[in-house]
Amino acid sequence: MRTIDGSDGGGQLLRTALTLSVLTEAPVRIESIRGSRPDPGLRPQHLAAVELAADYCDATVEGDVIDSETVTFRPGEAREPTLDASIPTAGSVTLLLDTVLPFALDSEEPITVAVTGGTDVKWSPPAASLQRVKLPLLARFGLDAEVELERTGFYPAGGGKVTLRCRSSSLSPIELDDRGAFEDVWIHSKASEDLADRDVADRQAEQARQRLHAAGITMREPTVEYVETRSTGSVILLRAEYERSLAGFDELGEPGRTAEAVADRAVDAFRAFHYTDAAVDEHVADQLLVFLALVGGRVRIPGVTDHVETTLALLDRFDCDVRIDDRDDTSASIVASPL
Q: The whole model's pTM is what?
């Protein structure tokens, strides 16, 4: 059994360890879960990941309770293609789905996962990023998956709902060392219905459009929507399309921050990325590492973050050959041989 020290990692380390345990059929014991956090141990969104992975492979689990700082996970041989999970807070459903998405490479039949919780919340990619950036990018290498957003859930009430559908997939090596020529940017701006009278989603989109136009950036027609939600909120996503890659830059609205300031932060993030030679954005870079470890390849990322370092160390514990190569001040290449 592999023993993992979770003290220096957050929920992503736990989710990745669960995914690798299922795919390699290797039992794992994760200790000091989120040990460096002010509230260590399993929170509802982390427990949901443990339960979802266990349901998929009929695992034997110990420590699967709220606040537990140690989880022992022994994957079984069965495979359950129809799954559901509910996070009783605004915990991120997109991060939860990260746990099961690689199972498309493991299952012989389609997988359907219905999840409720927070769809557009802090410290996680919004649902539109999963729909419009990550899944289309992975589709270029053979992943057959789609996600349907049925209801938006902002913090604190959550209550959003998404359904992920994956078909059995065989990925080719992920070669994203060169993004190719820039093509355009697509702006998607969304807000809760109670912000419609202040034109919040429209103002976010217009500010981003004006900033990009002034910089001479080619754009597609922005999309704007107002949706029924349990909590007030807004989000903007900029999807940058290149000849051989996609990148996403998002920002959430917050009390006291204008719609224009929200858009400015997303535009600033895109422009900072655009002037590097990275092929994927910072968040997708972290999320691609499991797929890269499984099928091999080479990806140019915008610098090596703490999340990347932590994930690389975890992959090494599962005997994955993934390493940093050709690193400079603004980007680095991650190279992997297939597991």
A: 0.96
